[in-house]
Amino acid sequence: MRILKLFLVVLILSSCVTSPPKSPNNICEIFDEKRSWYRASIKTYKRWDIAPSITMAFIKQESGFQQGAKPERERILFGLIPWKRKSSAYGYAQVVDGTWDLYKKETGRRFVSRTNFADSVDFIGWYNKRNSKNLGIPIDNARLLYLAYHEGPGGFKRGSYKSKPWLTDVGDKVQRSADRYRQQFRGCKNRLRNPFYFLFN
Questions:
Q1: What confidence score (pLDDT) does residue 87 get?
Q2: How is the chain split into domains, by residue range?
């Protein structure tokens, strides 16, 4: 009986896990496969003015579309034994505890989860809109928005990223992903917008 109960619990938990998209480099194919992701990205765009190409490029970089992504653990004792994780970052958008709490407080959204895709893209929209306004970053500049996302507003103001060549390289990578997604999205946004498209495909 205990084995049966354990099996049922595992089955229920596994059914709640969302797998990454099959074609992570093509936003049209992602939205064809994940219809709710398309709706969430458009809702975020309407609310925060952050394009789907940018929110999706951020999630691709931060978690590789892995729902429960976490930073790697540090290792001790000759690099063999896993220890604490490098930060409390978690979920699709790799948000740390303190910033997630601030998001909930400022938006009034109490019942949100970092493993929920819609909540994660809404967070990215909120955070980028906030940084765009407070730091004067163009709303469509994925590279600078990402550097501020990674370093935080204070770090970005101090230019902390300038001493981190690896991070500026990542910022360039996010910009390339956003540019590619934006170009792809131009070719499929009309059909995705059609309310009958998802009914018959």
A1: 79
A2: 24-65+116-194
